[in-house]
Design brief:
alpha/beta; 8 helices; Uracil-DNA Glycosylase, subunit E; 41% helix
Length: 177
C-alpha cells in the first residue's frame, strides 16, 4: 500500500519504488519524493493530505552491481501484475481525483497507447475501460518528479510540474457536476 490519509481527496501515482523507497518500504521518500512534496506545496496542495503510491510495487535492479542500485523501468507485465494492489488502494481511499506521474502510471490507467506528452496537464475523465467498483471523478497526467531531477533544465521542468499540480488543485476546488 501507499501512504497518506485514508480519506485523501487526491491520490498521486508514480511508477515504482526507487532505491530509497525499496529500502524504507514507503513510496516517495527519496530525492523524487522530496521534489514532489516541494512541487505540491508550490501548487498550494498540502502534501500531508495526499495519498502517495506507485502502480508497480517492487524494485527491479538493473545489472548485477548491487552497490549501485539503479532501477529498471517496469514493463506492461509488471504493471498488470501489480494492478490488483492499485485497484485495492483506489477502493480503500476513494479519492476524488488521481494525478498520474509519468508514463508507467498513465499506461496503468489508460493502456499502452497513453502518452504523457500528449495528455499532460489536462483534466481527463477516468477511463470507462477500467472495471472497478470505484472510479475517481477525474485524472490528470504529468511528468514524474524523477524526470525533473534528470532534466538539463530543472527549473523549467519543475515549474511545469507545479503548473500541472495547480490545475489539479483548481479542479479539486471546482464544484463537482
Amino acid at each position: 500500500m501507499g501512504v497518506g490519509p485514508a480519506d485523501a481527496e487526491l491520490m498521486v501515482v508514480g511508477e515504482q519504488p526507487g532505491d530509497q523507497e525499496d529500502v524504507q518500504g514507503e513510496p516517495f521518500v527519496g530525492p523524487a519524493g522530496r521534489l514532489l512534496r516541494d512541487a505540491l506545496r508550490g501548487a498550494g496542495i498540502d502534501p500531508d493530505r495526499v495519498f502517495r503510491t506507485n502502480v508497480v510495487k517492487h524494485f527491479r535492479i538493473r545489472g548485477t552491481d548491487t552497490r549501485r542500485r539503479i532501477h529498471r523501468p517496469p514493463d506492461l507485465g509488471h504493471i498488470h501484475a501489480c494492478g490488483p494492489w492499485f485497484d485495492a488502494e483506489l477502493k480503500v481511499v476513494k479519492p476524488t481525483a488521481v494525478v498520474l506521474l509519468g508514463a508507467s502510471a498513465g499506461k496503468a490507467v489508460f493502456g499502452p497507447g497513453f502518452r504523457v506528452t500528449k495528455e499532460r496537464g489536462h483534466v481527463l475523465e477516468w477511463p470507462s475501460r477500467r472495471d472497478e467498483s470505484f472510479a475517481p471523478s477525474w485524472v490528470l497526467a504529468t511528468i514524474h518528479p524523477s524526470a525533473v531531477l534528470r532534466s538539463d533544465n530543472r527549473e523549467a521542468e519543475l515549474q511545469g510540474l507545479v503548473d500541472d499540480l495547480v490545475v489539479a488543485r483548481e479542479a479539486l476546488a471546482a464544484p463537482q457536476v
